[in-house]
Amino acid sequence: MNLCIVLFLSATYSERFFICFLYISTDILQKTNDEQYCRIQKTKHALQVAEEELLRVQLEATTKSKELSQAHGAWFPPWLATHANYYKELATTHRKEHGQPVLDVLLQKVSEKSIQAQQFMEPHFESSKACCLIGNP
Prior knowledge:
This protein is an all-alpha fold. It contains three helices and no strands. It has helices spanning 3-10, 13-75, 78-134. It is elongated and about 115 Å long. The termini are far apart.
């Protein structure tokens, strides 16, 4: 006879109850463990599929980027880029030498005119405030 069966038959009623309880608990835990193992396997598979998809999309993006850079290079030859850069620097230098001083003078004059206009209009503002507060026209 099996040792487990011998022990079960020789046990008391409370010991048998406890053995049955442990057997049922072990069975429930085994089922839970199996379910979790299945979930983990499904999650691992989903992660692997997602990683493969990510790699595929990254490769596709890299390929598109290379194609666009080649097309951009075909549309914008190096000699034209050199000329464009030269004229950009020339325009920037010209603006710093000639445009910025003119802009500074213009802003100074506008500021002065604004102050003069405020000084000219201040008495009129005061009289209109007085009329509105008193209520007389």
